[in-house]
C-alpha cells in the first residue's frame, strides 16, 4: 500500500516538474534568451517602525492638540491678585498690555478729530505730555502720531498736514463776497444815474424821448433795438469794470486772502508728487477761484442792469 502511494506521489511530482519546465521554456522563448539577466525578483520591503495612531491624526490634521493649562496653586501670587489689578485699580502694578479708559478715549479723539492725545499707551496712569517725541511701541499709534505731527516715513510737511485742521475764515474773508457785490452795484448805479445822462446831453444827435432818462432805460425791456442803436448811450463800462476787478483781486493777493485750501484727498497726495506739480496745482486752484469770483461779479452786473430796467419801466409807467 505504501509502495503504491509512493509511486503515485512520484508520478505527480514528475508531471508537475514537466509542466514547470514547459512553462519556463515558453517564458524564455517569449522574453528572449537574455531575459534572466535583466529580470529579477523584487526585493522584500523593509520593515517600518510602528506608527502610533495619535501621531498619524496630528499629521493629517484630524486632531488639534491643546496645551495643557498650567495648574495654579494657591500659593502663587497671580492667584491672589484681583481682576481689577490689570486696570490699575489694585495694589500691584498695571498690566502694560491693557489700556485704561483715558487711553482709549485719547485714541478715539485722535482718530476722530486729529487733535491731542496721539502717542504710545501710557502705563503710568497720567495723561501724556504734549510734544512728547518718544517713539511709540504700538505700530498703530506710531502711524497715527506720524500722520498727526506731519510727515510719514521722513517725508516733509506739506498741505496734507493742514487738511484736517482748516482754519476758520476771518471776518474780512466772510465779508469779501458782499464787498464785491456792493462794489459792482455801485459801479452800475454810477453809470446809469450820472454817466449815461451826461453822455445823452453831450450827444446832440440822440433821440429825445418823453419821460427823461427812465424812459430810455424802460425802452430796453419793451422793444427790440432800433436801427439807430440803443435808446441809452454807449459808455466805457467795460474798462471801468476791469479796473474794479483788478483792484479787488489785488487787494485779495496783497492782504493774503487768496489762500486756497485743496480738497482733503488732493492735499494728502500733494507732498508725494514731483516738484513742479504741487505749485502748478495750487496756483491752478487759485486761478480757478479768481475765475469763479469774476463770474459772480458778472452775474451781479447782469442782475443790477435787469433791476434798473425793471425799475425804469415801473417809474416810466407811473409817470
Describe this structure in words.
- Residues 31-43 have a biased composition (Basic and acidic residues).
- One of its GO terms (biological process) is retrograde vesicle-mediated transport, Golgi to endoplasmic reticulum.
- The chain crosses the membrane at residues 175-194, 263-285, 297-316.
- InterPro entries: Get2/sif1.
- The chain has 319 residues and is mostly helical.
- The chain has a domain at 171-318.
- The protein has 11 helices and no strands.
- The protein has helices at residues 2-31, 35-38, 53-60, 77-80, 101-113, 139-149, 171-202, 213-219, 237-254, 264-269, 276-318.
- The chain starts with a helix and ends with a helix.
- The relative contact order is 0.07.
- Residues 74-81, 115-135 and 151-164 have low confidence and may be disordered.
* Number of separate strands: 0
Structural class: mainly alpha
Name the poorly predicted regions.
74-81, 115-135, 151-164
How large is the share of residues in beta strands?
under 5%
Principal-axes shape call = elongated
Q: What about the largest sheet?
A: none
**Helical residues, percent:** 55-70%
Could you give the order of the helices and strands? HHHHHHHHHHH
Short précis:
The protein contains 11 helices and no strands. By secondary structure, the chain is an all-alpha fold.
Question: Which labels suit this protein?
Answer:
55% helix; transmembrane helix; membrane; 319 residues; Get2/sif1; mainly alpha; transmembrane; 11 helices
Write the layout of secondary structure elements.
Elements: H1 2-31, H2 35-38, H3 53-60, H4 77-80, H5 101-113, H6 139-149, H7 171-202, H8 213-219, H9 237-254, H10 264-269, H11 276-318
